[in-house]
Every structure is written in C-alpha cells, then in structure tokens.
Amino acid sequence: MRFPIDSTRLTFVVADAPQQARDFKTKQPKTTPEGAPVFVVSLLAMDGKDSAPVRVRLAGDPGLAQGQPVQVAGLVLNKSSGASDMSWWTADAVLPLAPAPSQGGPRSASTGKAPA
Question: Are 68 and 50 spatial neighbours (Cβ–Cβ below 8 Å)?
C-alpha cells in the first residue's frame, strides 16, 4: 500500500550524508530494476512546531551533504502487511534548496569563530 504525503508544508534538512542502500538478505548494494543504485537519505522533517527523522530511499545518488536544506518531491510512505508489517519512505527526488554548508576551518572553542 502506498500513502502519498503532501510535503509542501514541511521543511527538510539532510541529517546524514546519503549512503547506498544494501539488500537486507545478501548485503549487496541495492539497485532499481533499471540498474540505478538506490540511496538512503536521512532527513529531519520539520513543520515549525515539531520535527521527526525520515529515512528516504530514492534512485540515484542525490549528491547532498549533511545540514543541507532540501525539497522532497513525490514523498510516499509504503506499507506492506503479512507475516511482518513493514513500512518505508520513498521519494521521486530530494533536491537541494541551497549549496551544501561548508565545513570551514578550525574554530575557536571559546567564540565558535574561525581564527583571523
């Protein structure tokens, strides 16, 4: 069963760098039927009052970095029932809204600013 989610009122930030998904049984890198690699992107979804982590699967490397604000297109909560109920998130795309934040150089512990 697929439940499309209206993500237009949510704000998303990349929580962890995307990683290629692995098959649960074989531990081999997962691919789509067309052969594209499947990536998992850990996001923080926020609505202005609360936040929740969301791990989204999508085809192809989205090329995102931790802390980057993004827009999620085609967000779907997928559910299967049977011997064990499972749920997972998928998206058509996770698109950057701004460049990746720079890691910068060393920062002072007392001021939090880079040395001059």
Answer: no
Q: In what order do the strands lie in the sheet with 38-46?
A: 2-4, 76-80, 86-90, 51-59, 38-46, 11-20, 69-73, 93-96
pLDDT for position 105: 46
pLDDT at 108: 43
Q: Are 50 and 31 in contact (CB under 8 A)?
A: no
Separation CA 113–CA 46 (nearest Å): 28
Report pTM. 0.79
Catalogue all structural domains in the chain, each as residue range(s) with its CATH number: 2-96 (2.40.50)
94 phi/psi in degrees, rounded to 5: -125, 110
Which residues does the chain have with pLDDT short of 70? 103-116
40, exposed or middle or buried, with CB in 10 Å at 0-12, 13-18, 19+? middle
- CA–CA separation, 18 and 100 (whole Å): 13
